[in-house]
Amino acid sequence: MEYSQDISIIVPLFNEEESLGELFSWIRKVMEENGFSYEVIFVDDGSTDGSWKVITEIAGQNSNVRGISFRRNYGKSAALFHGFEAASGRVVFTMDADLQDSPEELPEMYRMITVEGWDVVSGWKQHRQDNKVTKNLPSKLYNATARWITGIRLHDMNCGLKAYRNEVVKSIEVYGEMHRYIPYLAKNAGYTRITEKPVHHQKRKYGTSKFGIERFVNGFLDLLSLWFLSTFGKKPMHFFGFTGLLMFLTGFIMTVWIIAAKLINQSAHLKYRAVTDQPLFYLAILTVLLGVMLFLAGFICEMISRNSNERNKYNIKDRL
Ligand code: UDP
Ligand code: MG
């Protein structure tokens, strides 16, 4: 496939006016030194400072700079979604606007995609320059969980600096706050050649971080959703039906046993307890009810997935 340039660099940004000029000059310097043809796509995620003005100025002087401006702040995923849609380079990079990621890493990452044949090369902030307690530590824990659930051996799943084969970004759809798991989205779309490269990371020079500690809770919930979708998205009944059946049967057997034990003891004139006097009985009812509810959830999910326009979406590699 022919691409109109070697590289597309997507920069999502929210109130980063001080960094943009510096960032672009640095990108241009690295691109020119290495002789790449490239485009930079700035996606202004509803900034309320002068970011868009700076972008307009840069684009006025450089024909390979494009800009997309959201009317309000939608989040980094929305910005990346539009960037991916617009990207026309052979290799697509994403990069934060705050100068924490270094453009010097791009040539090597480009080589890893085009020569070594990786689908995704994710940056790894090996020596992370952020607050130790609020970011570095939770981040380690979070990445370990992500590795375990996704099966992708990355140290730093959420690094803003990443490179993709163009085809990858056109095959995935980032939404909600799923920008944290793009490698997982890529894997689920069938692109399994995913690796990482240690990258330089710098302290934020201007402005402040846009994400707080809540990212770890929300990030974990999103991870669970993605895991569920990728495992049972097309067959939800296999999840709900199985757990529902298991619970229903357990509860049912408990109930029968409690009633039978009582009747047998009663008819043999032995000491017996009324069914409603046994705490286990209530547990049994609860289990039966939960089982039925899980089953119903399964049917509803099946109807939803039957109506989804993704129900027959498969990523075809080749045709003869
Ligand atoms: N960002 C964005 N929309 C948002 C929040 C952040 O486009 O709603 C951009 C932000 O401007 C930066 C990148 O996403 O370019 C990463 O954000 P930040 O540097 O605040 O994250 P951190 O480095 O603290 O993880
Ligand atoms: Mg940052």
Keywords:
320 residues, alpha/beta, Spore Coat Polysaccharide Biosynthesis Protein SpsA, Chain A, binds uridine-5'-diphosphate, binds magnesium ion
Report on the architecture of this protein.
With 320 residues, this protein is α/β, with parallel strands linked by helices. The protein has 2 domains: 228 residues, Spore Coat Polysaccharide Biosynthesis Protein SpsA, Chain A; 71 residues. A 7-stranded mixed β-sheet has the order 3-2-1-4-6-5-7, sandwiched between helices. Helix 1 packs parallel to helix 2 and helix 9 packs antiparallel against helix 10. The chain is elongated, with a radius of gyration of 26 Å. The model has no long low-confidence stretch (mean pLDDT 95). Bound molecules: uridine-5'-diphosphate and magnesium ion (MG). Uridine-5'-diphosphate binds next to strand 1 and helix 3.
Q: What is the gist of this entry?
A:
The chain is α/β, with parallel strands linked by helices and 320 residues long. It has helices at residues 17-34, 51-61, 76-86, 106-114, 132-150, 166-171, 182-188, 214-232, 237-267, 279-307, and strands at 5-13, 38-44, 65-69, 89-94, 120-125, 162-165, 194-199.
